[in-house]
Fold each of these.
Amino acid sequence: MSAKRQYIVIDPHDNVATAIMPLAAGAELATAEATITLVHPIEFGHKFALDDIPTGAYVVKYGAPIGRATADIAKGDHVHVHNVADIVDEVRKG
Amino acid sequence: MQFKGYRRADGRIGIRNQVAVVSTVLCSSTVARRIAETAGAVAITHEAGCGQLGPEKEYTARVLQGVVTHPNVGAVLIVGLGCEQIDPELLVQAAQPKPARCISIQKMGGPTAAIASGIQMAREMMAAVSRAERQPAGLDELILATQCGSSDTGSGLASNPAVGALADLLVEAGGTVLMGETAGLYGAAGILARRAVSPEVADRIFEITDTIERCYQRMGKSIAEANPTPGNIAGGLTTLVEKALGGVRKGGTYPIQGVLRPAERVAGKGLWIMDTSVGLGACATSDMLAGGAQIMAYTTGRGNPLGSPIAPVIKITATEETAGSLGEIIDFDASPVLRGDETIAECGRRLLDEVLAVANGRLTQAEKLDNYVFAIGRIAA
């Protein structure tokens, strides 16, 4: 048996995963495609990047864009308000 | 997959067989409650029914009409005062051919006589509905309402996606799913609009979410300013769009067939939005059930006991502590998803089994506790 799943990816299109337990910096997580090494500690409910997300690119969760990267986000980085801007106005234009 | 329910004269299928004692107006609510308590029926009482204007008056009538015609309701006793706006006779006509009668406190000569007569009538109705037998029905005849309350991190992450997986399974089986909570849709309006089956439906999604945002602005704080809250951010939510998507995930991933007014009867299959902007979660619950939903999936992180007199409300939590300490009000434990023991898809299939069991008659915790809430909202727009 493999180790218990430590994070959730809600939709296959997502480029972030959400931790379902506190994860330590340096932790190595096997995903469907690759192994991800966490750059920062990730608390329960917080997100980390499954891919590199360059500045200006969408952060995708629930299969839809939830925000735009305001800095280059590396695979394994913590993804939160310090490196993501809301896109609510853009999303509302349809 | 099939379940067994009560086939009604209009062809719809009920999963409960309630005798509903319905007050037309706040003034008759105490009499209605006393009748229902003594006869073992359910009381449908509220604060509306008089002194209302225009769209609000129509809305109250629509909710009550939805209740008395509801397939989970086998018989109806309307309790009126005698001078209210809502016409008890019209509700009786709407409910027929199911057993339906009305009494008026003024015509009866006061509450004491009205209660005595009403108890007698409600008891006769209890006997009449007891003769109904459950008949086979398909999942395509089921209308599932979705709602959340007292949410936490586990709601957007596990229990709402699990309800979404259930919603997708139902839609694939030809069934119907309702989602509401208009303020919660605001941040995802554009994404939902792209899932609309037509430009008209997309326009309606923008229309109802713009209207609710204007209401919030008039109250002093826009939805976008207020969300995500500092507590949301500490819990890991980054943007309003993310928060909104976590809420709307309850409806699953299929195209949106249309936007219904609050308590409007749903007239098609697939996923629908109901504009339940007019009140609290309890009002939204009444709206969606009045619209014809026979059952509700309600996700709660911290635990909410709300049940409805006209339909089972299945309480789902993904938070292990809530499932344990508030087990009295929780029907379904989705915490295996948050422990990494179950996928969202697996949890959705387990939820479908739960829905079928409850549709077949297994009581929910809210039904065991008689913890029923019914409310009609006020139109703020």
Amino acid sequence: MKISIGDVALPGDYCEEICEVAEKSKVIIGPGLRKEADRVYITKPGVLKKRSPCTYWVDSYQKRYVPSRGENIIGVVVQKAGDIFRVDVGGSITAALSYLSFEGATKKNRPEVQVGDVVYAKMLVASKDMEPELVCVDSHGKKGRLGVLTDGFVFKCSLNLIRKILNPSCPLLESLKNEWPFEVAAGMNGRIWIKANSMRETIAVGNAILGAEYLNDEEIKTMCNNIAAILAGHVS
Amino acid sequence: MAANKKPQLPKSVLDMKFMKKTKERIEKELENTQDIEGLYSNIITSEMRHASGNYISESSFIYCEDLIEGRLSFKGMNPEIERLMESENKKYNSDEGSEMQKDVSDDILCKKMDSLKKRKWSASPGKCEIKRKKNK
């Protein structure tokens, strides 16, 4: 069926608007879209979205992570195999993380990573037919925000929620950031790691994030205010 | 397709004596490309050649939705991360904000550069003369 931007799309539908734009300029077709013959077909059920100037994608509900290049993820080290660590990222297979791809690591100076550790890493290679590969450094060899996550609390959620809270227009982190000290790492694979000073605060951040999934911006703001009030002891 | 053809040396230049090697190389290249095109012409269709066209496929949402970095720290929980966030924010703001404030306005710069240029032009012949004198 022919559909347009903003419509609910099902796999097999096609969009002619994208083709028309593509005749004049380059277009970026994101997840859920595929160019086949002379049409752009939808491959995931969801809502067809557009961002100016010409980026199109399907916003679909998904819990299974499919690795793709450049994304930051939270993984759990499940095995040490020679010079790589195998990391569970929630994908179809484990990802490989070389022990040399940590800041300051050399052949003699191995990083201290144990089985069971949680790492925040970047997808370097993610192709259909190969094991994905992770790194914990940027192209300058600096660790930046990546590396082993110590302490804290990890929980899973849908991939949509991660995208929702990381959207620059989302008020969730904006309204929580002045309430109490906490640290958060959100992996595009649907895992969130939180660290705060006390258990109460950690749970409060976790509940705020999980509660935000089906709320709109206004509701998120009031929810954050409520949580902050409860935590501060104004309301019991 | 004609527009993005490689620039070629004119024939008259290639006929010169010292261009012999280059001429041979170009002829060889031409032969090679023609061979390849001939070899696979029955497999590669024109459709395949123009398949990608104007479409760039991107498998990740982070570029589509312009998401922020996922590692954040607030109120001094992890000073290292907060320093990174701050420096990134500064960069972002300076990009968005107006241009850098100027100490010297464009007009003054223009006049100054003009006068500098004139001085250079007038100075350079003088230097040459001095050198010549020294050579003598």
Amino acid sequence: MRISAVVKRILKQFIHDKRTMALMIVAPIIILTMLSLVFNGEDLELKIGVLDLPDQIVEKMEQHAVVKNVSSEDAIESLLKEDYDAVVVFNNGEKKLYLEGSNPSINRAVIELVKNSAVNSEEKVTMNISYLFGSDDMTSFDHFGPVLVGFFIFFFVFLIAGVSFLRERTQGTLERVLASPIKRWELVIGYVVGFGLFTMVQSAIIALYSVYVIDLKMEGSFFYVLLITLMLALSALTLGILLSSFAKNELQMIQFIPLVVVPQIFFSGLFNLDTISNYLSWIGPLTPLYYGADALKSVMIKGQGLTELWIDLLVLFGFSITFMILNIYALKKHRRI
Amino acid sequence: MKNFPVQTRVTKRYGHTTILDNIKMTLNKGEIFGLLGPSGSGKTTFVKLLCGIEEATEGEVIVLEKQMPDLNVMKRIGYMAQADALYGELTAYENLEFFATLSGVSRREQKARILSAMKLVDLEKELQKRVEDFSGGMKRRLSLAIALLHNPDILILDEPTVGIDPSLRQKIWETFEDLRSKGVLILVTTHVMDEAERCSRLGMIKGGHLIAVGTPDELKKQTDSQTIEQAFLSYGGQSNEN
């Protein structure tokens, strides 16, 4: 009953606070729309597998890419699923290009490179191109859209949850609530459920908008997208509440953003993960967005299902549970029992 | 000894700063105990110790025969903090509903309790108004209504009448006296001397020390003063000399 009192109160506060509600839903939509209109391609190092290619062509390609010899055609798919961008095969005069396909700017770069590496540039190069994931009509935005959907949900939930819990402290209501016989875990669960319900609506609207209005590529099931965004939002919510206990005021809460939220973008796959320095690459797996973005890409670009997703979902859930336990512990500062 | 709802023998420190130094106090059922003292003397800390929000560094705080903090005892305490702890975005009714549920008032009883508590503080017409549109005095009264909601056995009120006009203050004190006659223990901290006169007993705190306890008349007699204010000042003077 006490949990439901907290849940009800949070939802009512949202309903009364139209501006916050609008911010959480409209702001991500506006930014996603802008980015979908603005974005252009990028530059990176390619990894290409080759089978039966003339040495001169391989040499030329090696100037611009990491090239590896493939033993047989059977190995192609597993190589692409690893981290190779493409495999080029020359077979009895027939030229085939297999693309991993989920990143359109990489697709374009590979096609360009293979064409330029042809011995006789006068000769018209004709190739059979096939895509493991994606297709040739995929835009760059299709590629990083899923990451951005995850990021914006994470960002706004983190901020709003953190600030609102912080305000409980600064306006004295946290102390007043703790003077009632509510248990610490009841308060934390109440917060998570109350914000969780609102976040569900928020994530659904943002995801629906991204898929049906911005027309982001959507190969998999929409239900999985909802599930992932909910799990991601839950981790943002619990992290926001947790960090709010280390902030004295709203400004300090906002200062956590460049420290805690922004770096997660670097490891979420928005930038090519292979180019990250080894000194930093260990950070990625410690951040919730890393898993959320990976899962969203799997569903939206590759159309994968639970078999590929469950680890990401489980890790996100683990983050949330950990943060919640730490929250219950952090509240001890305000009341021991 | 068993019948005293509150017994303390408590020292509270933050780091090396001693806020309360061995405060020994025993409060009775059915009395209004006034806690006087300059700001920064430790009144609020003492009040928070009784509510279970703060914990004793040394000694004990026994409320209703239990060492605080104790969740079951906290159900029977009505607390009004010095700063209004209200949700501005919510209406008065929503605030009351929230705290009523937290304090364990059953859903069936809530409406009646909310109405009667709001009548006491003369706010029954403002139930559907947002709290952010309330004046300071209205917020104070709403906080008081919240403290009264669950018919507590002990009321702990930290400066309850600040910003409330004299006629309403009169009415609120009548409510306190009515509750006391029903056996409720009321602890108020106050700066207002005519309020102090209306208390059953007074305790004076200065610099973390309890410097005097007694009925208003006793305190005046001991210091040979006409008013509580003079008594208060004369105790304050003594403690400075020590």
Amino acid sequence: MQDKISLGRKIKSAVLNILMYLSAGTIALILLGMIGYILYRGLPHISLDFLTQKPSLVRETVGILPNILNTLYIILITLVIVLPIGVGAAIYLNEYAKNKRIVRIIELATETLSGIPSIIYGLVGMLIFVQFCSLGTSLLAGSLTLVIMTLPTIIRTTQESLKTVPNGYREGSLALGAGKWYMIRTVVLPSAIDGIVTGCILSIGRIVGESAALLFTAGMANEVYGLLDAVKSGNAGSTLTVALYMYAKERGEFEIAFGVAAILLLLTFIINLSSKLAAKKLKAKGAK
Amino acid sequence: MSKIKKTARIIEKSTNIIFTFCGFLAVAFVILITGFLCVSGIPAIREIGICDFLFGTDWSPTSASSSYGILPFILTSVYGTFGAILIGVPLGLMCAIFIAKSANEKIAKTVRSCVDLLSGIPSVVYGLVGMIIIVPMVREVFNLSDGANLFSAIIVLTIMILPSVISVSETAIRSVPKEYEEASLALGATKTETIFKVIVPAAKSGILTAVVLGIGRSVGEAMAVMMVSGNVANMPGLFKSVRFLTTAVASEMSYSSGLQRKALFSIALVLFVFILIINLVLNLIVKRDKE
């Protein structure tokens, strides 16, 4: 049977097969090589001092505590603002909106938002929040910029999980005399919680990896702030990614840059794992 | 009783308004972004002249006879994107086919996790690796005085668009009906022939979506290419230091003023228009696919 396939066809198939294995192998190799190299150069620099000091020329310390804290603050502020808006928008799209055309317009808007490159967000964030709202280059302005950026993610994931809530739940609740808001609060939202969590994790991933949007909005300072100072206008601070960029490009301190890169890699790994777990949970629920 | 009803009605009404407001906020943001970009980008274009701005080949805002031509940036972005697509799409497509069809489940899973992880790595990390590994390598291999050029940028961009190309085309390939494959196999085609002559053509529009997504991603990338492209406003050449649309905005923003600063906003406006066009194409493809 096999002999009936001509030699030309066999060779063609073999070449394509080899190319396929080669591509997959190349990609895996690129990733593993990159991770290996970054950890190899970065891990030796990570120490307790590196994580808990702030950089000071006088005391000759290097450390990334301010950058870690700033990243956390920006994640926190962004999520606190974007969650109600995004979940609200998803509820509107899924529960309230009756006009198909309006839904289409809003979905088009969120798609547009998710396609805009981060450097434009950075620029517009600078124009709107830093200058127009006169917040100054600050963590708050950076967070507000990221709110616009992460909004599509939150809306999409929440909407997806709202769609998995069976209509019978809603009808049952309404039939028992509950108002629409009461129905949403007690029946729909609790069932949609894992979609919201997935959205949060994805947003955190995006925020941790973001640099271009923060460069001109959150600034480059390496100061340690308390949580209350972080939301004040004018308090600039760089996140881990911005710090990496500054150390590598502007100051040429590659050792510190690799240390930060290794930490970012570990964070990416953790975020990746948790988003996979959350997605699995969401899927399992959708199948039920 | 009527009192409860009244408060209930007020609550219903106000929640309705709040959710509607949230829903339209996304639209408002798009309008806000477009508005701010137009207001701050158009004056400089008007001052310089749209032809001189878009087709001028010389960008030297600080020299005595300052000129503001952004053709070098536009061409660099186009060439860079084209290069990344040229290498990235075949590579990504092959990998997607491998994951979807060929490999055994365990290997496919490993490769897929690799791809997921690649997509999560921050762009500055790509930039750093590019700066330390790719730039010196390009310098050595091609015997150049400086390895920070368009070629290095294309390599970094290629790696960065791979994850989206792979995951979107994998989904497209998986969604091809099983009957197509079975019919082709039953007619005596080999497995490889089936994949490349039946499944891939059937998944065409999904793969096209992947390509357009890749284009969008590489046109919009700023930080990584800034670190490896040399950042000089040359007309693009494969081994010349170049500046992209994105990096042109980012690199002079911190110290520019006056017309130069306004021109930077105009560059951002041009970039925004590019992205809108790409989004439009994407929407058209998806729409046609649905029909």
